[in-house]
């Protein structure tokens, strides 16, 4: 049968505070698919507190999913209920837990994930668009209008917003464990939202050789102590933030391309870190390097990072 039927023997307790009547949702298509489930695009119609028609995303299970995956999705949903709302995280809107497949209804981000967003907007000549020259270049009749062009201020604002979202998650005792540009969504008005923070992750069962759908190795975002000792904390999230910063400044580049996992272990242990991206300001490169300090205590905190990027942004505007 259809998904959900497989778990007809499991009843999920009704939580009236979050339950959405399925009649309010019209599924329009699929946004993504992972190993565990899929994300659908849908329209919430006549849903209280929202515009008459509002696009949402729905996380659900695949037809062939196991009971363990249902438990994981329920745990993610509970995590999101408990964490509460913030502008720079993907917020839970509600859920459908009765009479059909489990739907976790979350905010829809129009521009998809940050990695693809940046790759689609890479400056053609590899040159970085400086805030001060933005108007000049559009006047010269370039391919991209100044409205679309990504400036250094945008990139710094992205870093600031991610730090904001992570500062909030840390305040709610939430450790992300997989902070990467692929897990950050871009919403209207270039508002960034940290996604997938509520995932249940079995750090002991983790496969270091597992690749993402685009063939990249998640270990390349992992802090040295997470890699060697499976120690995860907001400090290890800060390391991941440093890699995201590198992804931002390279417009969606791939960290340590074609480097095998075994070599990454040795490279990091020897003290090697990624080089400064082309056109990356020295002060921003130094922040990345600080995020990659071997001793977690020597890394900046998310509140530090919020303040640092706020002041860089102020100086650019
Ligand atoms: N892809 C995965 N989740 C998404 C969301 N919430 N909005 C847009 N695209 C997505």
Describe this structure in words.
The strands form two sheets. This protein has a five-stranded antiparallel β-sheet, with helices on one face. The chain has a two-stranded antiparallel ribbon with strand order 6-7. 33% of the residues are buried. The termini are far apart. Strand 4 and strand 5 (103-107) form a beta hairpin. Helix 4 (152-171) runs antiparallel to helix 9 (302-316). It contains nine helices and seven strands; from the N terminus they run E-E-E-H-E-E-H-H-H-E-E-H-H-H-H-H. It is α+β, with helices and mostly antiparallel strands. Bound molecules: adenine. Adenine binds at residues 31-32, 39, 57, 90, 106-109, 112, 185. Residues 31-32, 39, 57, 90, 106-109, 112, 185 line the site of adenine.
Outline the fold blueprint:
Layout: E1 25-33, E2 37-45, E3 53-61, H1 67-83, E4 92-96, E5 103-107, H2 114-119, H3 134-139, H4 152-171, E6 184-187, E7 191-194, H5 224-229, H6 234-249, H7 261-269, H8 282-291, H9 302-316
Antiparallel strand pairs: 1-2, 2-3, 3-5, 4-5, 6-7
Helix pairs in contact: 4-6, 4-9, 6-8
Bound molecules: adenine (ADE).
Descriptive key words:
9 helices; 7 strands; two-stranded antiparallel ribbon; 317 residues; five-stranded antiparallel β-sheet; alpha+beta; 33% helix; binds adenine
């Amino acid at each position: 049968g259809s998904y959900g039927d497989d778990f007809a023997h499991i009843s999920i307790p009704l939580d009236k505070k979050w339950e959405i009547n399925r009649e309010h949702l019209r599924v329009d298509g699929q946004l993504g698919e992972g190993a565990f489930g899929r994300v659908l695009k849908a329209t919430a119609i006549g849903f209280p507190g929202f515009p008459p028609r509002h696009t949402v995303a729905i996380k659900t299970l695949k037809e062939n999913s196991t009971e363990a995956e249902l438990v994981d999705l329920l745990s993610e949903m509970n995590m999101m209920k408990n964490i509460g709302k913030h502008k720079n995280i993907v917020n839970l809107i509600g859920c459908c837990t009765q009479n059909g497949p489990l739907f976790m209804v979350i905010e829809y981000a129009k521009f998809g994930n940050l990695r693809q967003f940046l790759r689609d907007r890479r400056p053609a000549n590899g040159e970085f668009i400086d805030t001060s020259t933005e108007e000049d270049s559009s006047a010269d009749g370039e391919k991209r209008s100044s409205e679309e062009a990504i400036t250094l201020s945008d990139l710094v604002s992205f870093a600031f917003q991610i730090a904001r979202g992570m500062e909030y998650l840390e305040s709610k005792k939430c450790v992300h464990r997989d902070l990467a540009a692929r897990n950050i969504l871009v919403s209207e008005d270039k508002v960034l939202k940290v996604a997938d923070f509520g995932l249940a992750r079995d750090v002991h069962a983790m496969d270091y050789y597992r690749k993402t759908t685009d063939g990249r190795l998640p270990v390349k975002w992992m802090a040295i102590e997470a890699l060697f000792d499976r120690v995860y904390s907001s400090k290890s999230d800060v390391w991941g933030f440093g890699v995201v910063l590198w992804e931002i400044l390279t417009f969606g580049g791939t960290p340590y391309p074609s480097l095998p996992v075994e070599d990454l272990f040795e490279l990091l242990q020897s003290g090697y870190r990624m080089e400064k991206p082309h056109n990356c300001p020295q002060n921003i490169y130094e922040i990345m390097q600080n995020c990659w300090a071997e001793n977690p205590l020597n890394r900046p905190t998310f509140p530090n990072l919020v303040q640092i990027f706020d002041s860089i942004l102020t100086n650019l505007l």
